[in-house]
Amino acid sequence: MIMGIADGDDFQLVSTFCFKFPSASPGQVAPSGHIHSQTIVAADGHKFLVVNYSDVTQGLSCEQLVKRAKVIEPLVEKTREVVAYDLTLNVEPSMDGQHIAAVIARCGQKINAEYIVEFTNPATMFDQQFACAEQGILQNYIWMSLLCLVLAPTFFSALRTLHRRQAHNDVSALFFTAAAFFGVRVWLFTVHLIVYSHNGMGLGMLLFVAQFLDFLSTTMAMVVLVALVHGVYVVRPCIPVGSAERTALMRVTGCFGSTFLLSTLFCGFKVDGPISPFGVLRGPAAMPYLLSRTITGVFCLNQGFTLAQAAEAADKKPFILRFAFLAAAWLLIMPFIMLFSSEDSWHREAVIMDLTTAVTFSILLWDFWPSRFGALFNCIKPTERMHPYSEFT
């Protein structure tokens, strides 16, 4: 369901949808889909059009769209009164898999209309409100939520044990916070999908919060991996202030965070876009982030190889190389999938990317487990709280 105000040019794209029809048994009549439009107009000449989405993307004029329209419904007769128009169109199974668009047009004159448009498939609650590319996303994220629920006690147990032993450091604190944000984001997005399956809109604020949590979780996880491939607390207590290495690190992480934030804000305020659990949509707005994510992945891999060859990291070489490969794989998989896939498989791609993140957190948890934590992080800088007399040593 989409609602809004059409005001300005002589036509406006209201929304797009791709219908999916279940296969009918021989001898049975296949059910129809529906387009339900409620429109308020205050002038004559408005039309409700159903056209191929490709015609809109080609930049055709209003007159050309009217000529090519599959359906043309006048919204009001010639009158000066404000008129509310309620329209329900049946969509035949022959439209299965076709990407169509709803357009309000008033060729040669500016449009002025308020609208609510809803597309519904002839299917169960799991698929009724979802377009072709989104079919199955609800079921997949229900399973994803259950996976997070199963993993949560393990992460909490490790967190509690490290806290009780007072063994936490900056990197481990960021790691467990990022993992918690990831789990909460998956649950919130699943709730949004459940509501969306009933009303076709979901909970917009809940979706924005979920996407912002994804920004926080992903950025924190990136900082953790960057710190690990630089050997922070693993082979050295910190990266020297003012060094070229620290400058390069700050530039890469700053570029990653800023481009991801802009992509998340654009995605969050886009009203009629694909259902995305991430703050990323296909298009120009996401390209800077995908590029910076790719650069960060290559940067982590190169830094891991460089540090692994250093004499100071000889004992921790297997750890450093594993973190380097893990960081590169996790950071590069999203740009790779977004580049070499299409919107038709989005319901699978979104879950694959989230499963990759869950696997990444689980692999890191193996090294952050309390029984192995001390062997990995044995180069901690003394703190005033833990070592109040360190200045005398």
Can you walk me through this structure?
This protein has 393 residues and is α+β, with helices and mostly antiparallel strands. The chain has ten helices and eight strands. It has helices at 53-57, 62-68, 137-164, 170-199, 204-229, 244-268, 287-308, 317-339, 346-368, 370-376; strands at residues 2-7, 11-18, 33-41, 47-52, 71-74, 83-91, 99-105, 112-120. The radius of gyration is 26 Å and the shape is elongated. Mean pLDDT is 83; it is low at 384-393.
Which stretches of 5+ consecutive residues score pLDDT under 50? 384-393
Give the % helix: 40-55%
Structural class: alpha+beta
Provide the succession of SSEs: EEEEHHEEEEHHHHHHHH
**Order of strands, widest sheet:** 1-8-3-6
Briefly say what this structure is:
The protein is α+β, with helices and mostly antiparallel strands.
Topology:
Elements: E1 2-7, E2 11-18, E3 33-41, E4 47-52, H1 53-57, H2 62-68, E5 71-74, E6 83-91, E7 99-105, E8 112-120, H3 137-164, H4 170-199, H5 204-229, H6 244-268, H7 287-308, H8 317-339, H9 346-368, H10 370-376
Antiparallel strand pairs: 1-8, 2-7, 3-6, 3-8, 4-5, 4-7
Helix pairs in contact: 3-4, 3-9, 4-5, 4-9, 5-6, 5-8, 6-7, 7-8, 8-9
Relevant terms:
single chain; 393 residues; alpha+beta; Jelly Rolls; Rhopdopsin 7-helix transmembrane proteins; 2 domains; four-stranded antiparallel sheet; 10 helices; 50% helix; elongated; disordered C terminus
